[in-house]
């Protein structure tokens, strides 16, 4: 019989215990400034697809006291509510307090995940409709990576228009791979019905590198190219709903276009015809 060594106080202290710790299970790097990762999910955490949580790492020790405090940032949950793990899609800001470190996480490392999901990019905040627009730029794709894998999206709408605008072609990879993956997602095909993904019209555009479709989505809405390219009618409050996630400037510009088309902004407390969330502050 092998003798079991007792866990001494010294060995127990050697492993630092993070508050609300979750373990990294997968990391994928896309570009110098974009990566995604998956972590274990707290057993008691329930959330609605499209919501965000606070995640982070312990900060550097305070030079005076030596104490470390958690360094937390808001992150959209990119995985759907039914997934047993949680996925995040992240920027790498080279001098960013959190992401300068977070970009180096490896499988088996731990991060902090505060189990308090919130947000407005949820089905509950929209009135019923037939066509649902997801407008995103950069990492603003993240909440839609969740909603595109959420069965309710296809149960509630006949058509999903997923627009994603980035500066460069490589920055579209995460979104493109995710949409491609839906075609062979056994669970979703079984739950929603084979070919459910045909309801999605994917519209990726770039602004600074040559690609098949170039231009800011705001311009392509204003000049009507979005609608003629996809062979759909212009945005109509009677049938169309929208969720928006990008920089503050992007959100404000899309908000103006939605209001011009006659859509009213909604919230959890009062559902409406479009909802907005910032992809980052600044
Ligand atoms: C509701 C909400 C949801 C968010 N969800 C995500 C998410 O899913 N993925 C994600 O990567 N970030 C997300 N963010 C941004 C995130 O909270 C942090 O800002 C980001 O992780 C960078 O942290 P940092 O400490 O390294 O730098 P910070 O000090 O937080 O940011 C430094 C600067 O980097 C730029 N920046 C920060 N985040 C981004 C970004 N995502 N895209 C482009 N430029 C950025 C801004 O100019 C900012 O001023 C979200 C923010 C909000 C408010
Ligand atoms: N190579 C780099 O140096 C590099 C690369 C990526 C990110 N960054 C840094 O990261 C931060 C964010 O970059 P990001 O590219 O993720 O986000 P971003 O600057 O918001 O741009 C993402 C996409 O959204 C478009 N966009 C921006 N504002 C818009 C608006 N008001 N209406 C319509 N479309 C709009 C951009 O088009 P436009 O190209 O026309 O602006 C771009 O295609 C910046 O501070 C940047 O300095 C730097």
From TrEMBL:
Entry keywords, A to Z: FAD, Flavoprotein, NADP, Oxidoreductase
Reactions it catalyzes: 2 reduced [2Fe-2S]-[ferredoxin] + NADP(+) + H(+) = 2 oxidized [2Fe-2S]-[ferredoxin] + NADPH
Names of required cofactors: FAD
Enzyme Commission number: 1.18.1.2
GO biological process terms held by the UniProt record: cellular response to oxidative stress; heme catabolic process
UniProt-listed SUPFAM superfamilies: Ferredoxin reductase-like, C-terminal NADP-linked domain, Riboflavin synthase domain-like
MF annotations from Gene Ontology: ferredoxin-NADP+ reductase activity
Chain ranges passing through the membrane: none
Origin: domain of life: Bacteria
Keyword Nucleotide-binding: no
Protein family per UniProt: Belongs to the ferredoxin--NADP reductase type 1 family.
Listed name of the protein: ferredoxin--NADP(+) reductase
Lineage, opening ranks: Bacteria, Pseudomonadati, Pseudomonadota, Alphaproteobacteria, Rhodobacterales
């Amino acid at each position: 019989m092998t003798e079991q060594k007792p866990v001494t106080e010294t060995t127990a202290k050697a492993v630092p215990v993070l508050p609300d710790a979750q373990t990294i299970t997968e990391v994928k790097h896309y570009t110098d400034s974009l990566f995604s990762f998956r972590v274990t999910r707290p057993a008691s955490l329930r959330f609605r697809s499209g919501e965000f949580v606070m995640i982070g790492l312990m900060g550097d020790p305070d030079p005076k006291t030596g104490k470390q405090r958690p360094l937390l940032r808001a992150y959209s949950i990119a995985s759907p509510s039914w997934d047993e793990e949680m996925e995040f899609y992240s920027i790498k800001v080279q001098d960013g307090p959190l992401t300068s470190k977070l970009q180096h996480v490896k499988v088996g490392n731990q991060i902090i995940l505060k189990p308090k999901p919130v947000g407005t990019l949820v089905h509950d905040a929209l009135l019923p409709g037939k066509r649902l627009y997801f407008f995103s730029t950069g990492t603003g794709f993240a909440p839609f990576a969740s909603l595109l894998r959420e069965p309710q999206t296809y149960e509630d709408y006949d058509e999903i228009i997923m627009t994603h605008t980035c500066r460069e072609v490589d920055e579209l990879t995460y979104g493109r791979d995710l949409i491609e993956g839906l075609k062979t997602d056994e669970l979703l095909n079984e739950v929603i019905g084979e070919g459910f993904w045909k309801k999605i019209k994917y519209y990726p555009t770039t602004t600074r590198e040559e690609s098949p479709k170039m231009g800011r989505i705001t311009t392509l809405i204003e000049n009507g190219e979005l609608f003629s390219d996809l062979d759909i009618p212009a945005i109509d409050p009677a049938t169309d709903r929208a969720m928006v996630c990008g920089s503050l400037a992007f959100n404000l510009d899309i908000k103006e276009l939605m209001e011009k088309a006659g859509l009213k902004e909604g919230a959890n407390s009062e559902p409406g015809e479009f909802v907005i969330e910032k992809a980052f502050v600044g």
